[in-house]
Amino acid sequence: MLLAGAVGDVGSAFWLSQEALRAAFHHYQMHGSTGEDGLGRLLLRDLCLNGMKEVVEWSVGASKEEVARLAPAVFEAAGRGEKEAVEIVERGAERTAGYVGVAARRMGEGRPRVFLQGSVFLRQSVYVREFERRLKKVCPDAVVEVCRRAGAEGAALLALGRDVAIEEEEEVMEMEEMARALTEQRNPRSTDIDTMTPEELVEVFIREEDSIRKALPRAANLLGRAVRIVTASLRNGGRLFYVGAGTSGRLGMLDASEIPPTFGEPPETVQGIMAGGVRALYRSVEGAEDRPEDGAEAVVDRGVGPGDVVCGITASGRTPFVFGALERATEIGCKTILITCNENRVRRTECDVEIDIPTGPELITGSTRLKAGTATKICLNIITTGAMIQLGKVKSNLMVSLQATNTKLQDRASRLLAKERDWTYREARAALEASGWDLGALLETSTRGSRGSH
């Protein structure tokens, strides 16, 4: 048995991406542009950057994993017939096959079983075929299979001949679990949605949102408990970490990003952990949510401690990355919260609070960015806003701790201060400018009715 992928980085996703970056940089240096539909433009798109100069800056601090995630762009370019990308893919397959051929000869294997290991082989069938074609030239009788498990675990299972059986068993279990999820059921009210007029579509969407209004009250007490847990943690110097994948992860990141400007809290107070990292915010990262160990590792790497709260978000109630993070957080001693939109979920946890919002089948089957996404956003709004209110970040219904970091917020702060202290708008703005836009301090030290006294 030979395990391809253990011969170094040559031919790996990281190697392919590195070669693509080199080719794109070279093209830019020679021609001063990325070229039409070339590798450079695809890399910019996947990195969500605006120019090759920004790619240079990004590459200096990029991790090996971050670079490797550019591999799909290489295969996309190759599929379009982009010469440089085609050459990179062919070169990677040829070198990997060459290494395997050398290893087979040294081991005296006339008909070696070759297992291809790594995400690039698992997800890029065209690469597997290219490797097989190259390998047949040096090992005509080789038998090639793709290893469905990563790392040492996959190698060990292959040696025992158990990889395929275990994979098939797990796939069956996952499919059965997913099939039971409320979010995966077909919605009888939208079976003819593809024949509706735009006006009819709008009416159906509006009526469907009513299920959120009916589902949320059922979770009111649980949401209240979540607010109490988060408030207690933050009051004692702890932090809140949202963990999610896809839409759920993006919603957590969005809510976390709004806390500093709205309530004046540092970015460390509420943080998001996203399966697939920052790139997954704007582009799907294949398989990022499928490994529970990645979620567990992320919790550790982000420095989550016993005084923190980890809130897992998964509309389907089954995302492995999320449950891996929650399990590790429990081991660390954190308080944990789970938010799902599937009360039929099979997997249960030992979370301190488990909130299931049964929004029902989506208008587009399985598209949880719709009702499930809306309900999730409301839950996150309630938890963090409720905690900030409890911590004194809001007076009456005014955001007195906001950070006036742009024109709109400076205007809002000026109007708020003017109204609360019975000052003119100009007086309030002058006081805020003099204080470095510290609205909270002015509201605490000033006295209502002291117009003009500053």
TrEMBL record:
Residues 230-393 form the SIS domain. It comes from Darwinula stevensoni. It comes from the Eukaryota. This is N-acetyl-D-glucosamine kinase. Its EC number is 2.7.1.59. CDD domains: SIS_Etherase. Keywords: Carbohydrate metabolism, Lyase. GO terms for biological process: amino sugar catabolic process; peptidoglycan turnover. Belongs to the eukaryotic-type N-acetylglucosamine kinase family. Pfam families: BcrAD_BadFG, GKRP_SIS_N. One of its GO terms (molecular function) is carbon-oxygen lyase activity.
